[in-house]
C-alpha cells in the first residue's frame, strides 16, 4: 500500500506518464515487455525510482555478530545497528538530485546497486518484493494505457 501511495504522490509530475503512454502506442497493445524480472522498459524505471523515493522500509535493526571495523570505527559484537534506508536512498553522493523524481536515472546507471535496498537484503530480503513490483506494474500499465490528459472547464463563481 505504501508503494502505491508513493506512486500516487509522484503523479503530479506526469512527464514519465506521457512518455510511457507514447512508448505504449508505438509498441502496440502489449506495452509491458517480459524481462529479467518480468517487467521492463519505462514502467520498471518508474517503479525503481518510486521505491527509491518512497522508502517502503525506512530502517532496519541489526545486531553485530562480531566486532566490525568501518573506516577506523569499531562496532563491538552485540551492539545494535540501525540502518537508515531513507538516508541511503536519498544520499547526494549516490544519486544526483536525490529529491527529484527522475526514473531515467536508472538508465544512466546512477548510484551503486548495493545502495538500493527497497526490500531489505540478505537472508531477510522481503519475499514479496517481486510480487509487489508486478502488482504496481499491472496497475501502472492499466493507468497509462487508459490515461487521457484533459483540463476541465472550471468557471469560478464570484
Automatic annotation (TrEMBL):
One of its GO terms (molecular function) is oxidoreductase activity, acting on paired donors, with incorporation or reduction of molecular oxygen, NAD(P)H as one donor, and incorporation of one atom of oxygen. Keywords: Heme, Iron, Metal-binding, Monooxygenase, Oxidoreductase. One of its GO terms (biological process) is brassinosteroid homeostasis. Pfam families: p450. InterPro entries: Cyt_P450 (IPR001128), Cyt_P450_B (IPR002397), Cyt_P450_CS (IPR017972), Cyt_P450_sf (IPR036396). It comes from the Eukaryota. Belongs to the cytochrome P450 family. This is 3-epi-6-deoxocathasterone 23-monooxygenase. It comes from Acorus gramineus. The lineage of its organism: Eukaryota, Viridiplantae, Streptophyta, Embryophyta, Tracheophyta.
Amino acid at each position: 500500500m505504501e508503494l502505491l501511495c508513493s506512486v500516487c504522490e509522484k503523479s503530479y509530475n506526469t512527464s514519465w506518464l506521457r512518455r510511457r503512454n507514447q512508448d505504449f502506442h508505438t509498441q502496440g497493445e502489449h506495452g509491458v515487455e517480459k524481462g529479467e524480472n518480468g517487467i521492463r522498459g519505462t514502467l520498471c524505471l518508474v517503479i525503481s525510482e518510486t521505491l527509491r523515493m518512497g522508502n517502503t522500509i525506512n530502517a532496519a535493526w541489526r545486531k553485530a555478530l562480531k566486532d566490525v571495523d568501518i573506516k577506523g570505527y569499531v562496532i563491538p559484537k552485540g551492539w545494535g545497528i540501525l540502518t537508515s534506508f531513507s538516508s541511503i536512498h536519498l544520499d547526494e553522493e549516490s544519486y544526483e538530485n536525490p529529491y527529484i523524481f527522475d526514473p531515467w536515472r536508472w538508465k544512466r546507471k546512477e548510484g551503486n546497486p548495493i545502495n538500493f535496498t527497497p526490500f531489505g537484503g540478505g537472508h531477510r530480503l522481503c519475499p514479496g518484493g517481486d510480487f509487489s513490483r508486478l502488482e504496481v506494474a499491472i496497475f501502472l500499465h492499466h493507468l497509462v494505457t487508459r490515461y487521457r490528459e484533459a483540463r476541465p472547464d472550471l468557471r469560478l463563481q464570484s
